[in-house]
């Protein structure tokens, strides 16, 4: 019980979905190897193979987690030569397992070295150490989430150090994804990527409110997407919007999002993750 | 461990879905604030913004729960002036945290004051006390499930009393939804709302078997929906129905449901939640 | 706490889905009856009423589980005369609750006697004992997952023996599903059922690599489905395949699967579970 409280949880984020037993078996293996570990599903609903979407979801999540170990698997390159890694974050002198009573967020992230972990590592203060996990034996019959990542996470949760589970690699050698597009022009426009459309249709942009301030934008902004431009208000709450209105709002991750009140802004505007929109200061074009 | 057993669980019901990390982060925050708390997902699959569907699912669930704290979030009015509340149910003299060994269902429900909690409160014996939670600081970056409801539930689970988390309000002032339509005519007909279509296509009605008895209905009933009428048998089990037959059956919540054997009655009949059907005693029209 | 570690977990697999509260209420009842039990969702995403798909998913899962009790419910015959059973697997002399420190997989499976449990029982070493659970009281208002299977699993987890929860039945009397089609001809062809299409579109066959060896197949195989035939390579990893290529690969369950690299082989080929394909040795036809 001391362990449960002080070791924290094992957090899972994958693209395994909910229809198959992939996520369930991964959970079960964690518990088999680390009985008593609290297992927390962050989500298994990352779109299949979408490393970028998974990396964004993970980065949005980790600032709010308690202590523990994060396992993230979105891994189109499984069984290729991509590395599998465990990465320690935060102050390098800290042991993996925090001392009793210590708090703070996750100490180690485990997953494929394909960029999935990068932005979460940044959000947790950067990588202080990393190891490459030994590859599973060649040949058929393996499933990295079940056979590699879950058991490694269990060992770390039980008190293993990074050096016990792999071979040191330079944290600077970890694969990084290209950052989302965010370009500010002096003329007062911001070209910015839609990074996420959530269940409610809110379309999160790579920009933060400070990016709009720097571009001199006021209470209204012209939003261009494809050939269309819509003038929208910046609001502080969904309820400030009329029924048929799209607005810009700072969202729960500190990003700017295009939103509607009780409707899907993404459907109204026809935007998807990866689309680029241009925000223009009113009167700047 | 005493706490785990005697304090019960923290139950979550939301419209956050499974594709995003909303539910996972909410779970993680509960565990961060109340390490060791068993977190039970009732469902996160309530249709987006559908307070009525969430309120019905919650009311169907709570009679079967053990002790603990319920967090329910279907909250189209987030960041408007709707209140956030915690509501104690059952005998007013009971403390929030039951004594060791005490059983019984949940003691406190936490969520937006938009009607979501009302029918569950009724099912648990009514509200004996309520508090309004302090609003989150104005401005961007908040997410009530993560930043308000989960932390409050954790504090209550750890032993806080209602007065520690908010300001008393009159339980009678809590917002109530309009009850589902259920009108019985002396001539032997029951006009009744379809309140739920489940995954299997069973269409639950707001009526209970006793409503049909009171209207004098026998072993067969004429069911009118839109311009169509179908004569159906009342059965005690799916297997009593022929392959192409719709029946009326008392379901696991004590409601009358329109059902088929191994097929979706809702698809066969073309009905959805919110539709109204008319049940008529055979020979009454 | 001794109990948590030594008694293992309670594993759930159902077709209840995630939209309704069925799975959540079942989880909650387990915890209400067995506070402290770790509850592990294997999946609730089995297609509605699809006993065969559920039986396959369960059989794929159980080899990787730690100790505990498995509850599986895909039950189109609920409230008919099908039996409900609890089945002990493995060496018959073992008590349900393993001794402290004992490991190994699940000891008991609980569910409807409709074939759902059969292949999982095989995978766990066969049934050493079985009991029929008492039927719920006749009449409306019951839900076997909530009212029968979950409470029985909780009692078993707490230490009850099989004889405490039902009446002995002959394990050989348990209902068995027809095995997936797998026919090898001496001429070098294998007629085989597609048993599963996973989230990523991999199409698992009932065959294992040894079946292909026995038919004398080499590095390439002709795959016939409907009127079409495709020549495919046997590969050891997704990444060996070209962008537009289908391959045969041994999958994580030791089966042969038709796969693509980062695309859905099932969509490319137009195959679904239950379809039959014919694998032919190159030059054999």
What is the average of the pLDDT values of chain A?
91
> Which two chains share the most extensive interface?
A-B, 38 and 37 residues
Radius of gyration of CA atoms of chain A, rounded to a whole number: 21 Å
Give the helix proportion of chain A (percent range). 10-25%
Tell me what portion of residues of chain A adopts beta-strand conformation: 25-35%
Reported for the largest beta sheet of chain A, the result is:
7 strands, mixed
Shape of chain A: elongated
Measured distance between first and last alpha carbons of chain A: 62 Å
Structural overview:
The structure is a homotrimer of 285-residue chains. Chain A has helices spanning 2-7, 22-33, 51-61, 118-123, 144-158, 162-165, 209-214, 265-269; strands at 9-14, 39-43, 68-73, 84-89, 106-112, 127-132, 167-169, 182-185, 189-197, 203-205, 220-225, 228-235, 247-250, 256-259, 276-281. Chain A is elongated, with a radius of gyration of 21 Å. By secondary structure, chain A is an alpha+beta fold. In chain A, helix 2 (22-33) runs parallel beside helix 5. Chains in contact: A-B, A-C, B-C. The A-B interface holds A 1, 4-5, 8-9, 11, 13, 18, 38, 40-45, 57-58, 60-61, 64-66, 198-200, 209, 236-239, 249-254, 261-262 and B 1, 15-25, 27-29, 31-33, 35-36, 39, 48-49, 76-81, 138-143, 146-147.
Nutshell version of this structure?
Chain A is built from eight helices and 15 strands. By secondary structure, chain A is of the alpha+beta class.
